[in-house]
């Protein structure tokens, strides 16, 4: 840029960019070896610079040479300035030594390519151009042509009309920049042509005034103030209108002309009030003439209301007044006399006819409240005059405000959003005015207010009104969610007012003048106040909480102290609030504020004391506490700290009471309920359904029934547990759970109310629906036997009502369940004992042990991992010994898990021949009360040559509180029994179990129940190979030697029994080899030959030349009666003499442990085997032996030894006399649900002395326990039947019914058509559905 051409005013005004320092030169970028200047370089210069030159050439660095220039005029020909934006300027070439000091030489030339004429192609085609960006910042120049036309209206009078019309379209920033000039222009037009342009000028003035109300242009208001003071202060003195003369003149004119020009007069009045509103809207300071004029008008304004009513309607006049008072400035300075005049005007307005009329009052009230609100929100010291004004306002408006807010709040809101917003706006104005008024009231104002009531009834009505309004003010929807400060201010006003009104309540409504309604409204308000979400400081951030406490304190504690003080003043009137206020006060104590809890919890002691005086007990207090605790804690209220505080405070309070014992009982009950509710709430926070959720719900459900006897809450939690089971697909457990509710109902026509998801219906209909639902879930859980019993009960009901259609459907459903039992397979679940030790576990698990029913295909390792996932902080214990007190009291979680074996309650079905495995599988794993765990150990010196001499078994038997499956997958252990099994007894059990396994496999092979012969082959190989290698010989060395017999004379019978079993095993093996030879495939013949050879070696090693007579009689049955046969009272289906007698027993009886059923051999198969072995047909009887109570190993699945278990007959539980033992159950069923004792729903398991001891059987294995098994053979054979999967914990009464009282759905048919002798009589179907219900 050439600095020679710059004028003195243009120097130091070139900058590289915005904010950069100015200079005289700008150097564009020139790259090395690139002489042409670089384009798109930027610089900044003020608007006064009009001449631009191109960059200098780099050819001669020592000489500056001007080769071109560009320019742009800032002012256009019409007077507007250059528009903002980017402009492409023409670069004109200049000759040598050309001087540009004379601008006339180039200003006439074109400057921009955009403005070139179309015929000038020479300049348009040039490639060089200079780009600039301009932006105007001026208070005198404008780029808007319309604004320029308006300001220069005298030069173009024909454009005035268009200019006034376009004023509203001009940007507001342009108008306020030229505010004074614009106002001068408008008033100048009005003076010269008021008739022609008056209306448009007035519209323009209104537009400008409205424009100044915008927050963007508020800083231009001083310009308006200066303009008004300078031009109109004296000019408005003539505009005092005497409305009485105007109205009277109009009336006379109307009478004379019969109402001519009526509309014109109305328009004039409207225009007049519009002018008045404009005049009143101007803000003024001090004692300006305008302010004085406004004050004069406001003093006389209320006097014209009556005159206006002579011509206009009430609503029209009210509209004039509302708009006029609403136009007053919202902010008035303290030293302005207009403030007092405004209040006087408002006071006169309230006393006028307009305010008395309801139609006009609803129009005036918002503006009156708005003026009062603005006045009261001024934060300054009240002078005596202002205090008197507050007193006047309180006296005249407080009651009106309260009634208006109540009326609007009770009015139904319109559905439209616009109407709702309008409703909120109106209500907000009333509320803000009320709060402002109450904030200004002092002690003297409250005293005068309360003394002003002429009667107690008026005071009572006022207290009820203000308490109700306060409850409305603290509703969540009263203010927007983020208006925290407004809510805090409101609450501060409320608690301040309540403290004043409490004295009036005590003085006027106690003793003989007690009024329950007022006191109840007071307590109700106090409780709602404390429980507001906006006052729960714990939910705020620490900084926000600190600020609130510094400014307002904890208003919850303040109100709590006031509640306690008022409660203490009630005296004997406290009884009026028991039990009604127990729930609200309990909700207050659950607020997590320690001081508030310490203040409020003692009220419950007071309630207990007064209730004890009145009734001799405090059952009402207990019932209400329990009912409210459940609902409140389920909402997330309360914590462990509250439980401890509740317990400690009340126990300390009742120490010296005469009713101390019953008080301790109540407190303990409520505390235990809190423990369970807190555990339940914590468990429900988890995502997926797991054992903790179900276990916690079961614990709470049982607590409501057994300890609290709260039937409705009990039923509610039944359905909560039912929903959990359905979500987890535990269909059997869901059925048992819903059955708890079913058992509470009778087959009667008693009407039942709508409850939960049940409609209003009769008791019969609801029980029918429950039965059908339970059957459906039993079907889905593959527990078909239980579903059959319910089908029968429903069928009996349909039959009794002759409803043959439904009866037919029910019989078909029953038949389908029988088909599923025979055709579908069921998985056999595993059972696990779980111990939860340590204080970190929930209350319902802490330091307790449970037995859990596993999921499908779930083995010990998978179950352990699942438990550790449910309790991620738990430590798995690596031993099975009982933990010591250190573990119990540890501040941690310890899990102890190992597998256990179920002990069936009855062997009736399991020991019967001919019953398919599909049926037996149900009784092996259902209705189980007891479980067993065996731990082998060596006592004394271990013989390295023969470890069986010192191998003992520690047998632990666990008895549950309820049988599995049931309403849960796990139940707590109720009793633990520990016995030791001697090495000899252990040997007897091992061989008995192995013999039973052999018989079962042989039977299945003969009856072709096995798909292949491999299981029998493996079992034969394992036993024979182990015996050849010294298996049974080890037992001979250990127990048949002279030293052992001499040292243990008491074991003579047991030694004889062991010898019998060893011979019996050899005979069974011989028989099994014969069967094996018949069915063995050709490719396995070499193996079979090897087994036969090894068997002969085994007999030789045992010294067996010929089997004794009692063994030769039958491979399985002993003519002299084996000890096992003697212990079992179930008769053999096939007797030695060929006669058959069938005892009809229920397959729906008790499960057993063994995985293989021992069905009898058919006559044809026996004859075939006899032909092979050369034995008589009577050898079939070998397979009629009853299952033995031992297992094949020393694993955790060992069954109880016959020497250490009770010898009560197994048929006791299935005998007809058992129904008499449960006669009380039938009697309970006749009672209504409320009259039934708890045991009708939660019957205790029979005492071990009453419950028939099971005869354990099994096929489980353990290392080093069976000498007949070699290492590769110690595997569990493939099971031949399946059992249930998703089965948990059932209702005890239901379990008892199935386990103790119920008979089979259909008894097994005998294999031959012979006369049937039934030991139980009847039709062989067992107990009736009526007995089942009992």
UniProtKB/TrEMBL annotation:
PANTHER family assigned to the protein according to its UniProt record, in alphabetical order: DEDICATOR OF CYTOKINESIS, DEDICATOR OF CYTOKINESIS PROTEIN 4
Record lineage: Eukaryota, Metazoa, Chordata, Craniata, Vertebrata
Organism of derivation: Collichthys lucidus (Big head croaker)
Protein name as annotated: Dedicator of cytokinesis protein 4
Record domain C2 DOCK-type: where: 1-137
Domain called DOCKER: residue spans: 705-1111
GO biological process: cell chemotaxis; small GTPase-mediated signal transduction
Biased composition (Basic and acidic residues): 1-11
Polar residues biased stretches: 1118-1132, 1203-1214
Gene Ontology MF term list: GTPase activator activity; guanyl-nucleotide exchange factor activity; small GTPase binding
Compositional bias per record (Pro residues), positions renumbered to this chain: 1304-1313
InterPro entries linked to this entry: C2_DOCK-type_domain, C2_domain_sf, DHR2_DOCK4, DOCK, DOCK_C_lobe_A, DOCK_C_lobe_C, DOCKER_dom, DOCKER_Lobe_B
Domain of life: Eukaryota
Residue ranges, compositional bias (Low complexity): 1157-1170, 1187-1202
Record region (Disordered): 1-27, 1118-1334
Family: Belongs to the DOCK family.
Pfam families for the chain: DHR-2_Lobe_B, DHR-2_Lobe_C, DOCK-C2, TPR_DOCK
GO cellular component: cytoplasm; plasma membrane
């Amino acid at each position: 840029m050439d600095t020679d051409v710059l004028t003195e005013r243009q120097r130091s005004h070139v900058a590289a960019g915005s904010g950069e320092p100015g200079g005289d030169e700008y150097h564009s970028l020139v790259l090395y070896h690139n002489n042409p200047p670089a384009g798109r370089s930027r610089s900044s210069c003020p608007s006064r610079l009009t001449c631009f030159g191109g960059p200098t050439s780099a050819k001669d660095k020592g000489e500056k040479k001007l080769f071109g220039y560009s320019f742009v005029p800032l002012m256009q020909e019409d007077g507007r300035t250059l528009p903002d934006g980017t402009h492409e300027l023409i670069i004109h070439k200049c000759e040598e030594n050309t001087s540009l000091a004379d601008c006339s030489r180039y200003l006439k030339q074109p400057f921009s390519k955009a403005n070139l004429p179309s015929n000038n192609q020479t300049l348009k085609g040039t490639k060089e151009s200079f780009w600039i960006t301009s932006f105007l910042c001026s208070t005198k120049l404008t780029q808007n042509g319309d604004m320029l036309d308006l300001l220069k209206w005298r030069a173009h009078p024909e454009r005035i009309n268009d200019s006034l019309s376009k004023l509203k379209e001009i940007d507001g920033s342009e108008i306020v920049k030229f505010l004074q000039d614009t106002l001068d222009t408008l008033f100048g037009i009005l003076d010269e042509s008021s008739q022609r342009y008056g209306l448009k000028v007035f519209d323009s003035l209104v537009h400008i005034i409205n424009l100044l109300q915008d927050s963007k242009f508020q800083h231009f208001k001083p310009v308006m103030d200066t303009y008004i003071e300078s031009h109109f202060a004296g000019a408005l003195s003539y505009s005092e209108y005497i409305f009485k003369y105007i109205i009277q003149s109009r009336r006379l004119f109307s009478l004379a002309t019969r109402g001519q020009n009526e509309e014109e007069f109305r328009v004039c009045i409207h225009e007049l009030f519009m002018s008045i509103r404009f005049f009143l809207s101007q803000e003024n300071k001090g004692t300006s003439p305008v302010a004085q004029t406004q004050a004069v008008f406001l003093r006389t304004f209320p006097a014209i209301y009556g005159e206006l009513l002579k011509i206009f309607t009430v609503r029209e006049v009210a509209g004039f007044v509302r708009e006029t008072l609403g136009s007053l400035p919202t902010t008035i300075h303290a030293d302005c006399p207009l403030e007092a005049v405004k209040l006087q005007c408002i006071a006169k307005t309230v006393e006028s006819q307009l305010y008395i009329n309801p139609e006009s009052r609803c129009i005036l009230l918002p503006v009156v409240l708005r003026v009062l609100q603005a006045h009261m929100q001024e934060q300054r010291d009240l002078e005596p005059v202002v205090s008197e004004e507050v007193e006047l306002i309180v006296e005249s408006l407080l009651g009106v405000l309260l009634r208006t807010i109540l009326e609007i709040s009770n009015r139904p809101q319109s559905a439209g959003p616009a109407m709702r917003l309008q409703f909120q706006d109106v209500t907000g104005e009333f509320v803000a005015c009320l709060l402002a008024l109450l904030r200004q009231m002092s002690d003297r104002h409250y005293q005068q207010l309360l003394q002003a009531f002429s009667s107690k009834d008026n005071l009572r009505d006022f207290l009820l009104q203000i308490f109700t309004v306060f409850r409305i003010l603290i509703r969540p929807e009263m203010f927007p969610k983020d208006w925290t400060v407004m809510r805090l201010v409101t609450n501060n006003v409320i608690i301040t007012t309540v403290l004043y009104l409490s004295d009036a309540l005590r003085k006027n409504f106690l003793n003989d003048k007690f009024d329950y309604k007022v006191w109840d409204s007071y307590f109700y308000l106090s409780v709602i106040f404390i429980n507001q979400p906006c006052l729960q400081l714990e939910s705020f951030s620490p900084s926000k909480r600190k600020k609130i406490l510094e400014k307002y304190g904890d208003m919850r504690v303040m109100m709590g102290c006031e509640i306690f003080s008022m409660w203490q003043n009630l005296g004997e009137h406290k009884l009026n609030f028991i039990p009604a206020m127990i729930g609200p006060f309990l909700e207050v104590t659950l607020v997590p504020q320690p001081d508030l809890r310490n203040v409020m919890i003692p009220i419950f002691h007071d309630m207990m004391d007064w209730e004890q005086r009145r009734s001799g007990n405090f059952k009402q207090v207990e019932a209400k506490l329990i009912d409210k605790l459940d609902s409140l804690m389920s909402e997330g209220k309360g914590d462990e700290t509250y439980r401890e505080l509740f317990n400690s405070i009340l126990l300390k309070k009742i120490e010296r009471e005469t009713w101390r014992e019953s008080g301790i009982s109540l407190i303990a009950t409520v505390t235990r309920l809190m423990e369970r509710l807190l555990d339940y709430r914590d468990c429900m926070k988890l995502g997926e359904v797991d054992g903790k959720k179900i276990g916690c719900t079961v614990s709470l459900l049982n607590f409501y029934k057994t300890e609290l006897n709260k039937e409705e809450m009990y039923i509610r939690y039944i359905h909560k547990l039912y929903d959990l089971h359905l979500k987890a697909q535990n269909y059997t457990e869901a059925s048992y759970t819903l059955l708890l509710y079913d058992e509470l109902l009778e087959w009667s026509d008693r009407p039942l109310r709508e409850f939960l998801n049940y409609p209003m219906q009769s008791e019969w209909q609801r029980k029918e629906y429950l039965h059908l639902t339970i059957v459906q879930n039993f079907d889905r859980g593959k527990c078909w036997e239980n579903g059959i019993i319910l089908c029968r009960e429903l069928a009996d009901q349909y039959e009794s009502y002759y409803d043959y259609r439904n009866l037919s459907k029910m019989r078909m459903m029953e038949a389908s369940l029988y088909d599923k039992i025979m055709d579908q397979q069921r998985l056999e679940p595993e059972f696990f004992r779980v111990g939860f030790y340590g204080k970190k576990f929930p209350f319902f698990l802490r330091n307790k042990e449970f037995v859990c029913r596993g999921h499908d295909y779930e083995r010990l390792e998978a179950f352990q991992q699942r438990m550790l996932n449910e309790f991620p902080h738990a430590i798995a214990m690596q031993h099975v010994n009982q933990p010591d007190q250190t573990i119990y009291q540890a501040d941690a979680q310890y899990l102890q898990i190992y597998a256990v074996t179920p002990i069936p309650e009855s062997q009736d079905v399991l020991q019967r021949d001919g019953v398919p495995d599909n049926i037996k599988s149900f009784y092996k794993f259902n209705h189980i009360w007891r479980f067993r765990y065996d731990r082998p150990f060596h006592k004394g010196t271990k013989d390295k040559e023969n470890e069986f001499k010192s191998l003992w078994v520690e047998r632990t038997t666990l008895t549950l509180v309820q049988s599995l499956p049931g309403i849960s997958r796990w139940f707590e252990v109720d009793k633990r029994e520990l016995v030791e099994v001697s090495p000899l007894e252990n040997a007897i059990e091992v061989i008995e179990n192995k013999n039973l396994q052999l018989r079962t496999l042989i039977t299945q092979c003969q009856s072709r129940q096995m798909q292949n012969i491999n299981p029998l082959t493996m079992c034969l190989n394992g036993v024979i190979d182990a015996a050849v290698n010294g298996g049974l010989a080890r037992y001979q060395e250990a127990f048949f030697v002279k030293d052992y017999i001499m040292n243990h004379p008491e074991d003579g019978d047991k030694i004889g029994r062991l010898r019998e079993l060893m011979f019996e095993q050899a005979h069974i093996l011989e028989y099994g080899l014969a069967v094996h030879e018949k069915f063995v495939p050709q490719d396995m013949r070499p193996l079979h030959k090897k087994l036969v050879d090894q068997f002969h070696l085994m007999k030789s090693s045992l010294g067996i030349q010929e089997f004794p007579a009692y063994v030769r009689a039958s491979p399985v049955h002993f003519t002299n009666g084996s000890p096992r046969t003697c212990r079992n009272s179930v008769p053999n289906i096939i007797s030695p003499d060929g006669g058959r007698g069938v005892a009809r027993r229920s397959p729906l009886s008790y499960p057993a442990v063994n995985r293989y059923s021992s069905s009898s051999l058919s006559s044809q198969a026996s004859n075939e085997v006899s032909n092979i072995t050369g034995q008589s047909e009577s050898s079939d009887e070998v397979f009629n032996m009853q299952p033995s109570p031992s297992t094949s190993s020393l694993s955790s699945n060992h069954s109880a030894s016959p020497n250490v278990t009770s010898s009560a007959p197994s048929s006791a539980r299935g005998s007809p006399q058992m129904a008499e033992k449960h006669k009380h159950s039938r009697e309970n069923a006749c009672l209504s649900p409320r009259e039934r004792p708890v045991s009708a729903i939660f019957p205790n398991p029979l005492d071990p002395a009453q419950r028939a001891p099971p005869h354990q059987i099994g096929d489980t294995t353990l290392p080093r326990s069976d000498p007949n098994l070699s290492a590769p053979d110690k595997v569990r054979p493939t099971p031949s039947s399946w059992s249930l999967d998703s089965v948990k914990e059932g209702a005890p009464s239901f379990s008892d019914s199935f386990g103790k009282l119920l008979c089979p759905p259909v008894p097994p048919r005998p294999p031959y058509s012979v006369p049937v002798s039934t030991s139980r009589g009847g039709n062989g179907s067992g107990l009736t559905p009526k007995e089942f219900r009992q």
